[in-house]
Amino acid sequence: MITGEAYVASLHDGRAVWLDGKKVPDVTTDPLLRKSIDWVASTYDRYAGAENPMFGIPRTQAELREQIELLLASDRTAATTAGVMALTSLGYDALDAYAATVRERDIRVAAAVDDTAKPVHVEAERDGGVVLSGGKHHVLGAAVVHELLVVAGDVACAVPLNAGGVRVIAHTPAPRADDDRHFPYSRSHTISEAIVVFDDVFVPAERVFRDAAAFPDTLTVWERARAVADQADRAELILGLAQTISEMNGIETVSHVRDKLSAIAVYSKMCRAGWESALANAQVNEGGMVLPDDSYLYATKAYGGHLYSEMTHYLHDVAGGAVITAPTIADLDNPEIGDYLRKYMRTMEGVSGEDRTRIFHIIRDLFADTYGGWDKVTNQVVGGGMHHQRMAALDSYDLGPVKARARAAAGIG
Amino acid sequence: MPMMTGEQYRASLLDGRKCYLDGELIKDPADHPLLKTSVDSVAGTYDRFYDPAPDAFHPMYTIPRSREDMDRRIEALGKSDITAGTTAACMALVEVAPELGKLRPEYRERIYEFFEWCKEKDVRCSEAITDAKGHRKKRPLQQDDPDAYVRVVDRQRDGIVIRGAKLHITGAPLVHEQVVLPTKSMKPGEEDYAVACSVPSNAEGLKIVNTTNAPRGGDDLRHFPISYRTNMPEGLLVFDDVFVPNERVFLDGEVSHAASLAHALGLWERSNAVAYSGSSADRLVGLAALLAEMNGAADRTDIRDLLSDLAIYATMCRAGWEAAMANATTNEDGTLSPASLYISASKFYNAELHGKMIDILHDIAGTLLVEAPTMADYDNEEIGPDIREHLAGDSGWSAQDRLKLLHYVRDLTADTYGGWIAVTESLAGGGQYAQRLVTLRHFDLNNAKDLARRAVGLEAQ
């Protein structure tokens, strides 16, 4: 398994990436993309010298929990790479060889599933391989992974980022401040996304997988599961921040504040309950892979998304205006004003002005700034938005037993 | 004295004020990359309303005495930057002038003199109300730091000396006067905290530490179609023993009236918010409808449901303002005030559902909202053609128009400025709980109970 440093070096492969209207000659030296690269590199370093467990397939509930813990502790490209591994459970021999390569080379793969207005399609067949043309958007990590698994109708292709004809139009929610210390989360936890254009990209035969219409569902299974697990973690963080800042403000016992805290507590427990139920009712697919139950995943995602804005609204409310007006770390460092700021941001014995300022920074970064907006929107609209999430919850619900219960209650047999 | 031009306004900021941003002292706000556009927007207001006539003044200095006055005022403020709104709110001091005059006649005179001075000099003011507050449940004298609320630390023959801090002061580094008011009611014993006054931005001992919602780090401002021109800094004012001459002191020690000034300004601040909430909500409806058309989804039943939610919201926001004006009252000096009941109820309603309405826009927009290429990408010779091809759908929208719409909605709802809006919508002019309290205070509960008693068949009380 390679080190973070080796991973960074591996990105010097001639890939064609653009950001903010300019071609990026070296993604590793671009200050904004570098934040994503550093995050991925940190996951590499954690497993350097040993096989990253994401390359395994969970076959018990305990292993499923371990897999999710691992994905939550890793950068976002781990979930899509693990998705490639999940595909091997579908019984495609051709994929096994490719997955083995991914594991041996310890590379990262992004899922290219959602089409642009010009869908990716097989333009021509040549030498047993195919020529791809079209575009994919919402490709998480495209600029910083090694390969893309592109799904085009019933064909899937593994395409290296530096393949001729691949153009990556990247975007990132990473903070753009020169001194980004007041963006405590996003300064080290953003992954750039991209529109990827395939301009007559040749894919050799061994990287083309036929009969792949069912791929997207399994390829993205860990992203889907990770999102619901992360939603439960995030809900607990919202409650933790709301309670902490209430205590720092001295209002944690005020009745209307307790009302809001209790609403977040209920939300947090329900998000956790939904996720735990998805795990407790885990399913085993035909390849023996254990995965969370879809009906609980969809319902929990829909529930969490529906109330998310209300919860962040409560968090803003108990925290107060300093969410958006707290001074920066650089302000605290300035000898002319630093002591004044520590004095006036402080509230009582045991609550330092600097600690309280840092709590405001994390609330702003996650729930009222660029990263917060990106995170909220991508979580809410993934899978087609809230309406489609609700429909997925309905479609995956086993309606037979509930109809039978209704008929029995009405006495109509 | 004639009104100021934008250029004169820019020059007026070079008065030795001590303003900081990102840990650095700002030499000239008009030349600072993160403050320049804010200064430009204020200067733009100056130029837009400039009139060389010697007695001309900005319409915000017209004290509304009728619905027509109010409509003109709202229209003028709608064409102005935020500092005109904060200045207009400060002018609401005149609303409480008669009441304060009963305490000490000079308070009333000073307020009117200050009003006339601001009008004549064509200056901008901030509303410096929120204190550092320390432990929120403790009174000022119970705090372990007596400066948690701004207080008078010395009284001299010709003025007072104040110490403390004021937070979340919109436009603070860009205005001329910081109008300091108590943040809440005070009790006997807390006389030093019952202080209202106006402090020039360059006063000795005043430091202004700022944050801003201006776009950072991008030299292509087309990516931020709203915030690159409407951004505004928020200041934390530190008063380190600042001397205030008597003629700028509007309250000193009269605890019984500490809250009435903040209430008067709060009503105006909330009123401004409610007055524009209808048109702001209309804009959300329009943006949602355009997003639906852009995505070819305008006829879908679920999308029409969402649009109707937005339309109801916009209509109720407008209704709140109409009701507040239909039930407006006038004080003994003839100043018109919108009805507090409808203002606070509308403000609460508007803020409470705002997040849900934004959810609707996001749902209709889809993931491209936060990952759309920039306009610079669009202009790039190598990838511009890709973007034109891959973003133009079959709904007749060009890629360029799609990008413009998506960037506008992202900037407004899902980026730095959007976060600022979300927080200020619910907290400016008092938080949601304050709106509940004011609504309940002004609601005729006895009448409601009588109605209920009659309906149930109980005797009226």
Molecular structure report:
The complex is a heterodimer of chains A (413) and B (461). Chain A is of the alpha+beta class and 413 residues long. Chain A is built from 16 helices and twelve strands. Chain A has a six-stranded mixed beta sheet, with no helix packed on it. A four-stranded mixed beta sheet of chain A has the order 3-6-7-10. In chain A, a hairpin with a 2-residue loop joins β4 and β5 (129-136). The longest helix of chain A has 29 residues, at 221-249. In chain A, 54% of the residues are buried. With 461 residues, chain B is α+β, with helices and mostly antiparallel strands. The chains are: A alpha+beta (413), B alpha+beta (461).
Assembly type of the chains comes to heterodimer
Relative helix content of chain B: 40-55%
Query: Approximately what portion of the residues of chain B adopt beta-strand conformation?
Result: 5-15%
Q: Mean pLDDT of chain A, as a whole number?
A: 95
What global shape of chain A is seen?
A: globular
Number of helices of chain A: 16
Low-confidence stretches of chain B: none
- The coarse overall form of chain B would be globular
Give the spatial strand order of the biggest sheet of chain A.
2-1-8-9-5-4
Biggest interface, which chains?
A-B, 82 and 90 residues
Report on the biggest sheet of chain A: 6 strands, mixed
Name the poorly predicted regions of chain A: none
What gyration radius of chain B follows from the Cα positions, in whole Å?
A: 24 Å
